[in-house]
């Protein structure tokens, strides 16, 4: 016994076509009709009552050729050329304005933008990405972003950013293109370039991006002629258990002593992050009284 039911809205579908254990879904999009099929596992209905089928909405965003990905990566690179490389922020999309980490990130975004005088980049999503963006805007510095159609939390259904002008961000279809953009935005092709990667508290997506960039730095495949400072913001000991795990990796022999520590700077607060960047780029950092302190990059004296 079979049945079929079809409802379509763009590329969203509510479709079923069942014959025994074989199930097919058909959906229509701008490229025509498509079919997805699979087999159900064997089961018994001991109650003798009819079984019900539940249908949920599916969204298909097919990659029809590698050329599509290549073209999107090229658009990411073009946006970076127009807006300028700078500091890349990775962080949770779920920690909103009421969270203490949001407030800390907003302040950090403002202070780093002022210190390095460069573009601030993020995934152009909500949460801590939004905080870093707003902080840079408060400092009067340029921002850029690589948005994705799906983010945990807010803004999941719109391809448009709620307040950024469209010329400073790109909505990506493919995560691979977005990652290429976030990596290239931090590349230092000149010794005078001031860029950085700042890993804020986050979940699976943040960890994915963070360790991918760390691996590129470790293997010297990030494409930067000059070293890129990488800061891990350990607000309220957020990453302490991860750091304990990496210490265990040293004991197990999967990483060498000092290998992970050489890839990043762990910062417990914004002051440590600003001091590290100031030292890395040999820049003066202002104190609350308006005085400037210059921290040398490993040689020379500290002046105030």
β content, as a range?
15-25%
Enumerate the strands of the largest sheet in spatial order, edge to edge or round the barrel.
11-10-9-8-12-13-14
Element-by-element helix/strand order: EEEEEEEHEHEHEEHEHEHEHEE
Low-confidence stretches: 1-21, 23-36, 38-60, 293-304
Query: Could you give a short account of the major beta sheet?
Result: 7 strands, parallel
Using only C-alpha atoms, the radius of gyration works out to 24 Å
Structural class: alpha/beta
In CATH, what is the class of the domain at 82-278?
A: Alpha Beta
For the record, the CATH architecture of the domain at 82-278 stands as 3-Layer(aba) Sandwich
First CA to last CA: what distance?
A: 84 Å
Extended strand count = 16
Task: Summarize, please.
The protein has 304 residues and is an alpha/beta fold. It has seven helices and 16 strands.
């Amino acid at each position: 016994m079979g049945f079929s039911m079809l409802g379509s809205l763009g590329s969203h579908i509510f479709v079923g076509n069942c014959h025994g254990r074989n199930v097919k879904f058909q959906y229509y999009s701008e490229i025509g009709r498509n079919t997805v099929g699979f087999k159900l596992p064997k089961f018994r209905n001991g109650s003798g009552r009819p079984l019900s089928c539940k249908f949920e909405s599916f969204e298909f965003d097919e990659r029809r050729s590698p050329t599509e990905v290549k073209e999107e990566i090229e658009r990411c690179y073009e946006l970076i050329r127009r807006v300028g490389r700078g500091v890349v922020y990775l962080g949770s999309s779920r920690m909103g304005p009421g969270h203490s980490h949001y407030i800390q990130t907003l302040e950090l975004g403002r202070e780093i933008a002022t210190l390095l005088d460069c573009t601030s980049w993020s995934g152009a999503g909500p949460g801590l990405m939004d905080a870093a963006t707003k902080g840079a805007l408060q400092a009067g510095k340029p921002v850029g972003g690589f948005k994705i159609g799906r983010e945990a939390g807010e803004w999941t259904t719109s391809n448009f950013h709620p307040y950024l002008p469209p010329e400073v961000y790109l909505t990506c279809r493919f995560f691979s293109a977005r990652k290429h953009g976030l990596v290239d935005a931090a590349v230092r092709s000149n010794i005078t370039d001031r860029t950085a990667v700042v890993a804020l508290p986050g979940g699976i997506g943040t960890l994915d991006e963070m360790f991918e960039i760390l691996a590129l730095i470790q293997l010297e495949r990030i494409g930067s002629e000059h070293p890129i400072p990488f800061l891990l913001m350990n607000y309220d000991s957020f990453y302490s258990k991860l750091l304990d795990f990496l210490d265990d990796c040293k004991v197990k022999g999967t990483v060498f002593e000092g290998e992970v520590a050489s890839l990043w700077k762990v910062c417990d607060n914004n002051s440590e992050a600003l001091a590290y960047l100031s030292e890395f780029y040999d820049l003066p950092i202002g104190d609350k009284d308006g005085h400037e302190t210059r921290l040398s990059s490993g040689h020379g004296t500290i002046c105030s």
